[in-house]
């Protein structure tokens, strides 16, 4: 979160971190929400459905209890917890975005990028976002920005 604020401060003309205190507070609110709620819920499902299948997960899953010394099958209880959390949080996010282009309305900010960074993992991790039309529309706009697709590393297609 702090690196995003720092980077945005280096290019104030981009207005990714607004200049007025009220808008800054809104950006910080969403950055904290992402870091304390959304991040943890997403990490449960990413750890259980992806990381544990292929990796020794000693550090990256530690926040969400997904540590393994060797690849392991997913823990159904952890998956249920992660899905429940994502559904609850997605309801909040979807309702917020219904009448907005970006998290702060018409203004794209670093908070959009922080939350959007999880979206490329949504399908592989099985994030339960079906029916979240406002989130899907928001991410479609975000992923359509110049540079977004170039920043996403896609696995080579299998032929």
Written overview of the protein:
The protein has helices spanning 2-10, 21-54, 76-97, 110-116, 122-125, 133-143, 148-151. With 159 residues, the chain is mostly helical. It has a single domain, classed as Glutathione S-transferase Yfyf (Class Pi), Chain A, domain 2 (Up-down Bundle), CATH 1.20.1050. Helix 2 runs antiparallel to helix 3, helix 2 runs parallel beside helix 4 (110-116) and helix 3 (76-97) crosses helix 6.
Largest sheet: none
Indicate the structural class.
mainly alpha
The total of helices stands at 7
User: What is the 3D form?
Assistant: globular
Distance from first to last alpha carbon: 39 Å
Write down the Rg.
17 Å
Q: How would you state the average pLDDT, rounded? A: 87
CATH topology heading: Glutathione S-transferase Yfyf (Class Pi), Chain A, domain 2
> Approximately how much helix is present in the residues?
55-70%
How many domains in all? 1
> What is the CATH domain class?
Mainly Alpha
**Poorly predicted ranges:** none
What is the element string, with H for helices and E for strands?
A: HHHHHHH
Q: Strand fraction band?
A: under 5%
